[in-house]
Request: fold
Amino acid sequence: MNDPYGDLVLYQEGQWSAALERFEQTLVEQPASLVALRGVASCYLQLGSPAQALSHFGRAFQVDDEDAETSYGLGLTLVVMSQYRQALPYLEHSLQRQPANPRAWSKKGLVHLQLTQYAEAEASLCTALELSPYDPLDWSNLGVAYLAQGTLDRARLGKRAGGLRSATLPATLRTLQAMFAP
Reply:
């Protein structure tokens, strides 16, 4: 019998085709395995097949519609497919169950940016950065949200980034910090 948790190691090592094969073997033996369904879906997403990923995340959602990771996976897949309005409810569903997930807050912020809902994007991105302050993409997207609202006040972004220790910041974040510092 396949161990879907062992298959996660292959996935984490970036061996997506091998992991996909193993997860699919697990599904033959355990068709309702949430871990295997999410694993297959995640592999398909990494391999550039979002429609297949969406199908498997959908099956996982049918198995457990309360699972935060499955909801996040559905939302992420819909973002990849540029189906932003459809992604939002799944991201919100995920955050109701796992409110400390910076990835979900980040994707929710990105969705709001795409939907030109800039205040909502700002709020989501600020929450993502409170949870994970070293993500340069979130800092960049926050700058876009401020700029789109006509409120790019250098002190706001500079103050947020300025409290971080410069020695540990990724280069992109240091650049943003320098650009937006008062």
